[in-house]
């Protein structure tokens, strides 16, 4: 209660200060205009000025000052910093999706869940085809733009609780909980197909590109390294098979 009252007092004081400042600015403008030869009644103008200052002060306070003040208070209290930092620690700065650390934690969670509740889990490794050539043709900036947009297409194509993260330079890891290999293959095939039909902007040009995907299903008792190695092998097969392909790891 006491805190709410002091908040109201602060707001009223700030609004009064804004109103006074606005009024002073208006008076200055009025004298400047008069100096330039414009003529108007002083009393009428002063009344208008007060009215305008009183009307404008509350929105200026609520829209501009109050958010800045709240943010300042949050920073002072150290609130939000931890959240921001932990978010930054698991986010890839280029693509804004999870980085390797973030998606690995997500995958470990999904593995634990699958093992505990005996639900299927499918994992896919997607890799942009011939990114080196895109870099060579359009510069590293062009390659970066493509990476960012591919990440966007992948993220848009997935639904909760699926996850995607940038696992390496041009590699993306896709985690599909509650999904069998047969279902997972269909999902990643749909993703591969939509990437291949997407027009990617590079500078003023639009280009087409493809991705290759290796997909595998988690088996109880498997560790992260084993699971990732199956996904990587399947991806290598997709590359060797001519790229723009989905290859599922052989039944194990
Ligand atoms: N622009 C950009 N390029 C990257 C980034 N990370 C990795 N690369 C590039 O990705 C390319 C990967 O080259 P390769 O492994 O030969 O693969 P590729 O050219 O995509 O060919 P395949 O994977 O065999 O289809 C290299 O040229 C890297 O420099 C990045 O963050 N930005």
UniProtKB/TrEMBL annotation:
Protein name: diguanylate cyclase
Co-factor requirement: Mg(2+)
TM region positions: 12-33, 45-65
One Pfam family in the UniProt entry: GGDEF
GGDEF domain boundaries: 119-251
Principal EC category: transferase
Molecular function GO terms recorded: diguanylate cyclase activity
Keyword annotations: Membrane, Transmembrane, Transmembrane helix
Annotated EC: 2.7.7.65
Reaction it catalyzes: 2 GTP = 3',3'-c-di-GMP + 2 diphosphate
């Amino acid at each position: 209660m006491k805190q709410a009252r002091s908040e109201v007092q602060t707001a009223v004081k700030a609004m009064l200060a804004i109103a006074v400042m606005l009024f002073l600015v208006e008076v200055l403008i009025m004298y400047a205009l008069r100096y330039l030869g414009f003529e108007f009644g002083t009393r009428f103008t002063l009344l208008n000025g007060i009215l305008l200052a009183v009307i404008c002060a509350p929105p200026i306070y609520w829209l501009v000052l109050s958010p800045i003040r709240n943010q300042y208070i949050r920073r002072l209290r150290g609130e939000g910093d931890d959240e921001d930092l932990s978010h930054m620690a698991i986010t890839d700065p280029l693509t804004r999706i999870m980085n390797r650390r973030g998606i690995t934690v997500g995958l470990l969670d999904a593995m634990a869940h699958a093992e505990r509740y005996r639900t299927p889990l499918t994992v896919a490794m997607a890799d942009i085809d011939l990114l080196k050539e895109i870099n060579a043709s359009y510069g590293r900036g062009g390659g970066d733009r493509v990476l960012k947009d591919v990440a966007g297409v992948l993220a848009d194509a997935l639904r909760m609780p699926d996850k995607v993260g940038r696992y390496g330079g041009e590699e993306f890891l896709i985690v599909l909980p509650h999904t069998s290999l047969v279902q997972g293959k269909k999902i990643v095939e749909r993703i591969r197909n939509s990437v291949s039909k997407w027009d990617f902007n590079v500078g003023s040009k639009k280009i087409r590109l493809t991705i290759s995907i290796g997909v595998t299903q988690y088996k109880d008792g498997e560790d992260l390294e084993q699971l990732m190695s199956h996904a990587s092998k399947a991806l290598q097969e997709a590359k060797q098979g001519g790229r723009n392909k989905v290859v599922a790891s052989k039944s194990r």
